[in-house]
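We were asked to recover a plausible sequence for a given structure. The inputs and outputs are reproduced exactly as logged, with field labels preserved.

PROBLEM: sequence recovery
POSITIONS: 261
GIVEN STRUCTURE:
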């Protein structure tokens, strides 16, 4: 695969020359002209790097395509080999299965024969053991019955436990709901109380402001009336007479005449 790297030979030759040239270059980076020359040299180096990257990208794409073709060919060959193996393994497997079946049948026949022999030998003892067999069968049925009873009792106990657990869960849920409803009612009462207090405070504020305005209006009217009375006193109208005149004006008893407050 190293021969495929020959695509970089041209760049390696140029890189050798470029490295030698680069080592000889000296720039005055502080000087604008030297700085510009240094930047130009760096730009040329970057163009070389871009060219190398382009060649690498193209070569790598070819390599990946080759790898995919290689995998596909491998799968094709293995599939064909497996199909050839199956051609010969199928009759071999049939023979193996037939041999295993023959061995199993021989063993079964031998077991049956052994059982018959054993049965023949035990035939004389069957009658003697009949009562024992009946007793064993009775006990076996009793054990089955007891197992059934125990099983049903266990199922009933589990059902009872589940019912008790479900009832406890329902009671717990009901208590939680009741507590939640109670807290919701407390919160509602608090909100209603807060609303009432806010409304009461608003009414008190309105009344207070109205009282303050009324007092201010009365004080303002008193001040204006005193000023009018002072002016009447200045034109030789005595105080009592002036008060009667002002009262008549305020009450609208004198047409076209009013006091501006």
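RECOVERED SEQUENCE:
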């Amino acid at each position: 695969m190293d021969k495929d790297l020959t695509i970089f030979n041209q760049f390696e030759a140029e890189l050798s020359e470029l490295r030698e040239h680069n080592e000889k270059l000296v720039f005055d980076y502080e000087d604008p002209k030297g700085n510009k020359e240094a930047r130009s040299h760096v730009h040329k180096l970057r163009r070389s790097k871009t060219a190398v990257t382009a060649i690498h990208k193209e070569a790598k794409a070819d390599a990946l395509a080759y790898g995919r073709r290689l995998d596909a060919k491998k799968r094709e060959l293995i599939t064909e080999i497996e199909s050839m193996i199956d051609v010969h393994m199928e009759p071999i497997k049939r023979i193996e299965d037939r041999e295993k079946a023959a061995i199993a049948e021989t063993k079964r026949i031998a077991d049956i024969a052994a059982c018959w022999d054993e049965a023949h030998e035990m035939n004389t003892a069957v009658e003697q053991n009949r009562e024992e067999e009946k007793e064993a069968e009775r006990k076996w049925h009793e054990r089955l019955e007891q197992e059934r009873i125990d099983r049903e009792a266990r199922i009933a106990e589990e059902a009872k436990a589940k019912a008790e657990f479900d009832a406890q869960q329902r009671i717990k849920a009901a208590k939680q709901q009741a507590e939640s409803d109670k807290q919701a009612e407390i919160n509602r009462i608090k909100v209603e109380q807060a609303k009432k207090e806010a409304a009461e405070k608003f009414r008190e504020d309105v009344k207070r402001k109205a009282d303050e305005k009324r007092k201010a209006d009365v004080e303002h009217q008193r001040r204006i009336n005193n000023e009018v009375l002072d002016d009447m006193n200045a034109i030789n109208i005595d105080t009592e007479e002036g008060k009667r005149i002002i009262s008549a004006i305020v009450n609208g008893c004198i047409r076209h005449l009013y006091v501006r407050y």
